[in-house]
Task: structure prediction
Amino acid sequence: MGKLTVRALRAVLVVVLTGTAFVQAMMMWTLVSGNDPEDGTLPLTALRVITILGMVSVQVALVCVWRLLAMVRRGTVFSHAAFRYVDGIIGAIVAAALVWFTVTAVNAPGQRDDPGVTLIMGGIGVAILGVALLVLVLRMLLAQAVARDVEAAQMQAELDEVI
Result:
């Protein structure tokens, strides 16, 4: 991966992490200060708490991607240490899907006249879980690459002994 690509991705990660932290702080301030303008149409307090938790899952994924980028830069991404961060990303995506299903459940009573919205939101939750499965497949590919790398290192060591 080129230096420009790594720097660009890191810049995006910093912007998104800063943005989510800012939104979390503003939502926390609204909840703590008692200035929640809930008018009774939706449980805004519950949705704010759910949103804060959802942003935590995004932040966990961002930190894991940052750590994987550091491993890419050092050339150590094809090691067993990378699995911890990939597993963190998978866990964060599953948590985000659970948060989305919670939002769907909170929103569902208000959609009695139009249940299609709830079905669409449920479909989006399933799609989020599909992304987690995609990352799981990529993790399996990483496992194969690490195994081949270890095998190649062993063969190189044996070859060095023969020579």
User: Anything to note?
Assistant: The chain has a mean pLDDT of 89. Helices lie at 3-33, 44-74, 82-107, 115-162.
